[in-house]
Design brief:
The protein is an all-alpha fold and 75 residues long. The chain is built from 2 helices and no strands.
């Protein structure tokens, strides 16, 4: 049986201080709480002003399109 040479440890490309600050900023971003969706209660979209999650927002837009495509009822 032959032994393999141990691989040398690679030098880090990013300094450990920068890496630590980047990891800390990710934790802060996850800690931010977004509003809850008023329809289903899931976490809301951070950019939505109408307090809807992205799924309910897409359903709302789709419903608007369906209404616009229907012919107006004339009596």
């Amino acid at each position: 049986m032959t032994k393999r040479k141990p691989h040398p440890k690679p030098e880090p490309v990013i300094p450990s201080e920068i890496l630590a600050s980047a990891k800390a900023s990710i934790v802060v971003d996850k800690a931010k709480t977004h509003s809850r969706c008023v329809v289903c209660g899931s976490p809301g979209s951070p950019s939505a002003q109408d307090d809807l999650c992205w799924v309910c927002r897409r359903l709302k837009i789709s419903a608007w399109r369906d209404i616009e495509q229907q012919a107006p009822v004339q009596e």
